[in-house]
Each structure stands twice: as C-alpha cells, then as structure tokens.
Amino acid sequence: MRIDYDYSDYRVLVTGASDGIGRATAQAFHEAGAAVLAVDLNPDGLESLGAHGIKTLVQDVAADDAPANMISEAEGVLGGLNVLVNNAGICPVASLAETEDAMWDAALNVNLRAMFRLSREALPLLAATPAGRIVNIASVSALMANEGMGAYTASKHGVAGFSKNLAIEVGKQGITVNYILPGAIVTGITRELVENDAEFRDFWVEKSAAGRWGQPEDIARAILFLASRDADFISGHGLAVDGGALVRA
Ligand SMILES: NC(=O)c1ccc[n+]([C@@H]2O[C@H](COP(=O)([O-])OP(=O)(O)OC[C@H]3O[C@@H](n4cnc5c(N)ncnc54)[C@H](O)[C@@H]3O)[C@@H](O)[C@H]2O)c1
Predict the structure, then answer these.
(1) What lines the ligand 1 site, CB under 6 Å?
(2) What is the model's pLDDT at position 48?
(3) CATH of domain 11-186+217-240
(4) Which run of H or of E encompasses 37?
C-alpha cells in the first residue's frame, strides 16, 4: 500500500487489528512510521504483526477491565497516545424477532459500549497531545437498514450519535472525533460470503458506483487522512467510504 503520510512521531492504538480493516490500518500506520499498539481478542493475526515490530495486546475490548488494560499498555509501550482507532466489531445475523438478548447485548457491547468506554479512558492521553484523534468505525448501517441486521444497525447508528456528541465535548481540547461508514469490504466478516454467495457478491458490486468490493486498504487510507493534520477542522463527521454505494437509490 502506498503511504503518503509521515506519522513518525505518532502513537496509535487500533482495536480489532488481527484481521480486515483493523489489520490494514495497523500496518498502514506502522509503514508511515508510527508506533502502533494492535489489539484483538484473536491472537492469530497479531503474531505476524508483532513480527514486523508492531506492539500487540490480546484483549477482549468488551471486558470490564479492557479500557484500563489498553490505556496502561499504550502508556507503557508507546509512551502516550495520539490516535485511537475504535474498529473492533461483530455482526450477528438474525431477524429482530429471532434476536436473543445475548446476541443483542454482544453487538451493542462490542460495537458501541466498548468504544465509549475506551474513548473515555483515552481522553487524558489524547488531550496531552497537540491534535488528539479518535476515528470510530461505523458502517453504511449507520444510515440504512438491512433485513437480519437489526442489532448491528442499532449499534452502528449508536456509533454515529456517540461520535457526534463526543466531538462537541472534546473539540476545545484539540481532539477531533470522526466516524467512517465503510461500504462492502472484503474482510473476515464478509470473506466467506463474497467467495461463496454470488448473489450477495454481485449485489454490492452493482450497488457501488465503483463497480467493485472495497478492500481494507480503502478504509485504512481514509483513517490515515482523518488522523492527519490535514483534517484539523473536520470533527463529528461521518465519512462514507463505500465506492458510492449509498448514493444509488
Ligand atoms: N467488512 C465490511 O463490509 C464492513 C462494512 C461496514 C463496517 N464494517 C466494520 O468494520 C470493522 C472491522 O471489521 P472487519 O470488516 O474488518 O471484520 P474482521 O472480522 O476482519 O475484523 C474484525 C476484528 O475485530 C476483532 N474482534 C471482534 N470482537 C472483538 C472483541 N470483543 N475484542 C477484540 N477484538 C474483537 C476480530 O477478532 C477481528 O480480528 C467492524 O466494526 C465492522 O462492523 C465492516
């Protein structure tokens, strides 16, 4: 991936970094010179990141002690924090009529509550830097709905509301808070469907103006932009990175 940014003085924490968007983001910041802490509950993908010099932490972001663990690790191994990328997410699929409490709670806990708790814990470190950044990963499901994705849709609408509110509360400390709305991206969540379900695969190809699925690097590039000083005056914004899918009726 071509990197145009120089993040050599930056400390960056990325959640959900074993696979997909989080992994590409951790690698992109690392290639741009940043010190990166990559967090995931799945150790598999973290090992190869660690082999490239990226700091890693195996952690369930929804655990009670997760925010304190992640922020003390960021202080310990990175020496502070300039950028927090709240990316870890899950997508349980069931109609709302068939969604069990545990499924609903899992989606809301991982996708939204963990993001709120980690952001709150990170604020003192971010405020101590000249231009602290929080980039939250929402989804086009922050604006639209799909059958069978009710809990996910509710969580991602929540990510949008949370990001907007936090943006207005921390802006005067020099911190910006933005969220990205990825379209259809080939990652751990979608890979099997893309490979085996031609109808699903073609639906998103046709819906996108670009005529293709997105790759994790498409999202990583947008995150690097929002984290940069070029984006100093952008906050509370939801950036769709969907190849134009949302604008097609
Ligand atoms: N792939 C898409 O089409 C798409 C579209 C819109 C939004 N998103 C969002 O992008 C984000 C990243 O997902 P992805 O598509 O890269 O999927 P992915 O499955 O490839 O990556 C998600 C990562 O999060 C980790 N994770 C899940 N629960 C966790 C937890 N409790 N604690 C720590 N780590 C956890 C997983 O182990 C995995 O490595 C998610 O928030 C997802 O909702 C993805």
Answers:
(1) 15-16, 18-22, 40-42, 45, 60-62, 87-91, 110, 137, 139, 182, 184-185, 187-190
(2) 96
(3) 3.40.50.720
(4) strand 35-40
Q: How far is the CA of 22 from the centre of ligand 1 (A)?
A: 7
b/e 46-64 (16+ beta carbons within 10 angstroms → b): beebeeeebbbbebbbbee
Per-residue pLDDT at 112: 99
The catalytically annotated residue of 7, 10, 152, 179 is 152
If we measure between CA atoms, which residue out of 156, 46, 33, 143 comes closest to residue 83?
Answer: 33
Per-residue model confidence (pLDDT) at position 191 = 96
Give the mutation target among 13, 15, 19, 190 for probing the ligand 1 site: most ligand atoms within 8 A of CB: 19
Query: pLDDT at position 105, please?
Result: 98
The stretches in the chain having pLDDT less than 50 are none
Q: Which ligand 1 atom is the nearest neighbour of the CA of 45?
A: 39
Please say if 152 is a catalytic residue.
yes
pLDDT in tens, 62-113: 999 999 999 999 999 999 999 999 999 999 999 999 999 999 999 999 999 9
- Sheet of strand 55-58: strand arrangement: 55-58, 35-40, 11-15, 83-86, 133-137, 176-182, 238-241
* pLDDT at residue 249, rounded to an integer: 80
Q: Specify the pairing of strand 11-15 against strand 83-86.
A: parallel
